[in-house]
Write a structure and sequence with these properties.
With about 190 residues, the protein is an all-alpha fold. It folds into 2 domains: about 1-55, Homeodomain-like (Arc Repressor Mutant, subunit A); about 55-189, Tetracycline Repressor, domain 2 (Orthogonal Bundle). About 70% of the residues lie in helices and about 0% in strands. It has helices at about 10-30, 35-40, 45-50, 55-80, 85-100, 105-115, 120-140, 150-165, 170-180. The longest helix is centred in the middle third of the chain and has 23 residues, at about 55-80. The protein starts with 8 loop residues before the first helix and ends in a 9-residue tail after the last helix.
Length: about 190
């Protein structure tokens, strides 16, 4: 919910309770969980939920904006790492963790991101720009292949997250296979 007016204290508390409940319910049941369950888990009526979040996309957007901002900040912090390849892989692990927090997240996010006017879209663009800088740093250090774009990297990493959702061992293996293919000097397909 975005507004030029600050929220009353009780409205702010309800908003925060709804976000916390959505995080819990979506983690257990996926992003397609019933919104009634979110309201019930928060101990708040449906009308209050829909006053704050008129659509599922509004709720997903509010829940994920901070996460994209955190990914952006993580990428910016990792730029100082002495090993640009390790820094990039650390960030990719963070990205996968984000993408696998809630079942069905990728599809929900794609729906929201189609509207470039959303707060989530702006937050995602900031995260992508920071990831591009981190990737460029690794490429300039000649440890990551120079022909890789940030869009390709994010799509590949998102594919790993979707393919191995719910299986940490498989996620680790697929990420390792992916990152081994990113080494500078490996044969291009």
């Amino acid at each position: 919910m975005t507004s030029d007016r600050p929220m009353r204290a009780d409205a702010r508390r309800n908003y925060e309770r709804l976000l916390a409940a959505a995080a819990e319910v979506f983690a257990k049941e996926g992003t397609n969980a019933a919104l009634d369950d979110v309201a019930r888990y928060a101990g708040i009526g449906n009308a209050t939920l829909y006053r704050h979040f008129p659509t599922r996309q509004d709720l997903v957007e509010a829940l994920l904006t901070d996460r994209y901002d955190d990914l952006r900040a993580t990428a910016e912090r990792l730029l100082a790492d002495r090993d640009p390849r390790a820094a990039l892989i650390t960030w990719l692990r963070s990205f996968i963790t984000h993408m696998t927090t809630y079942r069905g997240l990728a599809a929900s996010v794609m729906t929201v991101l189609r509207d470039p006017e959303t707060e989530l879209s702006a937050s995602c663009k900031g995260m992508q720009a920071a990831a591009a800088t981190l990737l460029a740093h690794a490429q300039e250090s000649a440890v990551i292949r120079p022909d890789l774009t940030v869009d390709e990297l994010l799509r590949l990493t998102n594919g790993v997250a979707i393919a191995a959702e719910g299986n940490p061992d498989e996620t680790a293996r697929l990420l390792r296979l992916l990152t081994e293919g990113l080494y500078h000097g490996c044969d291009s397909a």
